[in-house]
């Protein structure tokens, strides 16, 4: 999971995020610690995580959980969905989204402002920008929300 996380950051955020972050030799180890905590720490027990595999190799990861933003619409926040670039367009992204988010839940998700592929994916799945943004690691992330859909 950590490997996919790092590779996807490098593929997605090259030119958007500082090279010092993306090329940090400790990035893989940091993501390993992140995933270890996210999957085992009781504080994160409300999170939902999923992996996509092909021939026994992880090619995509996703995680959602209770929103951490007081002003967000919806109780669920999509924390991340990453799919290795070689598998974009394969249906892996929608499958991961379905694995971590009920199709009728309202939800929030932050995406890098200059990430047209992810913005198109979000729009296709009912998300729209709500006007809120924040900057982390030199990347401006815009919050997108999806209202609750009735079955």
UniProtKB/TrEMBL annotation:
SUPFAM superfamilies: Acyl-CoA N-acyltransferases (Nat)
A GO MF label: acyltransferase activity, transferring groups other than amino-acyl groups
Keywords: Transferase
Domain N-acetyltransferase, residue spans: 1-149
Pfam families cross-referenced by the UniProt entry: Acetyltransf_1 (PF00583)
Record-given protein name: Acetyltransferase (GNAT) family protein
């Amino acid at each position: 999971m950590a490997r996919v996380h790092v590779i996807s950051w490098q593929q997605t955020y090259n030119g958007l995020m500082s090279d010092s972050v993306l090329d940090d030799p400790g990035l893989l180890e940091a993501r390993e610690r992140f995933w270890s905590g996210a999957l085992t720490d009781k504080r994160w027990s409300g999170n939902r995580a999923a992996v996509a595999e092909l021939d026994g190799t992880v090619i995509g990861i996703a995680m959602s959980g209770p929103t951490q933003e007081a002003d967000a619409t919806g109780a669920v926040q999509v924390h991340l969905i990453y799919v290795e670039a070689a598998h974009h367009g394969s249906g892996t992204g929608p499958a991961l989204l379905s694995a971590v988010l009920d199709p009728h839940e309202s939800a929030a998700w932050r995406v890098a402002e200059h990430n047209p592929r992810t913005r198109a994916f979000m729009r296709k799945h009912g998300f729209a920008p709500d006007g809120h943004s924040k900057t982390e690691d030199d990347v401006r992330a815009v919050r997108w929300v999806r209202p609750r859909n009735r079955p």
